[in-house]
Amino acid sequence: MDTSIIQGISTFRGSVFPGQQRMYQRLVRDGQQPKALIIACADSRVSPEHITQAGPGELFVCRNAGNIVPPFSQMNGGVSSAIEYAVVALGVRDIVVCGHSDCGAMKGLMQPGALKDMPNVAAWLRHSHAADRIVCEAYPDDIDPADRLRVLALENVVVQLTHLRTHPSVASALARGRLSLHGWFFEIETGTLHAYDGSRFVALSDDAPLPVAEVSVPRFATADPSGAVGVGAE
Ligand SMILES: [Zn+2]
Fold first, then answer.
1. In the chain, N or C: fewer CB atoms in 10 Å?
2. pLDDT tens across 179-226, in order?
3. Domain for residue 215, yes or no?
4. Nearest-CA neighbor of 55 among 11, 85, 92, 17?
5. How far apart are CA 110 and CA 162, in angstroms?
6. Are the C-beta atoms of 170 and 179 separated by less than 8 Å?
């Protein structure tokens, strides 16, 4: 193990934790009440807690290669379970999918040959194929490779937000107006956070409200939810 990690543990135990012990004990006594679920890339340069300056107990975080959310029906696993627990048990009111610049997973998507020794990564990235197709077929052919990588990461966030809505716990919370969805893109080199407004990504600024991908508004597919008056009623 790298000595910096061992030293970090020692510093935490010796001088950080003693000053925060009451906060940690309160988090155990009262239980966690995280403000949001953030699904981010496992990339070591993209730390949701650091970007949002959140402390222990404030964020429920799920990280994986490519900030991917498998569609509900195709795969059960860690991401699905984290979503369900965050929405049903913890009652989070916001879910964020956070992509980023210089993403290795997105590079792998652009160059499948580079993944020949990583069959699990290649299989995992199939959940991002829609984003790849969007960039290949809907964007100009002569797009610069650096720009292509960037728009692929952006489109991937949008695709994963779509997958998120296929999870029953998410779909139900959205219909009840108890959940908002957010798509973020973190530009590592500038520290800029871009947020999806349902149409495009906008750079965050302090004097404008946070763009939201899907705002929390209760909705019904019928004009009269209390009566059984549906489409085609006589
Ligand atoms: Zn990444």
1. C
2. 999 999 999 999 999 999 999 999 999 999 999 999 989 989 888 888
3. no
4. 17
5. 21
6. yes
User: How far apart are alpha carbons 51 and 167 in whole angstroms?
Assistant: 27
Any known ligand binding at 41? yes
Identify the pLDDT of residue 112. Answer: 87
Distance from Cα 158 to the centre of ligand 1, integer Å? 15
Spatial CA neighbour of 82 closest among 98, 95, 65: 95
CA angle 175, 180, 155 (to 5 degrees): 110
Give the domain CATH number at 94.
3.40.1050.10
Residue 194 · residue 187 · CB < 8 Å = yes
**Residue 81: inside a domain, yes or no?**
yes
User: Above 70 in pLDDT, residue 77?
Assistant: yes
Distance from Cα 228 to the centre of ligand 1, integer Å = 47
Annotate 77-90 with DSSP letters as a single string: SHHHHHHHIIIIIS
Is 132 annotated as ligand-binding? no
Q: Is 136 annotated as a binding residue?
A: no
Strand 192-196 and strand 180-187: pairing?
Answer: antiparallel
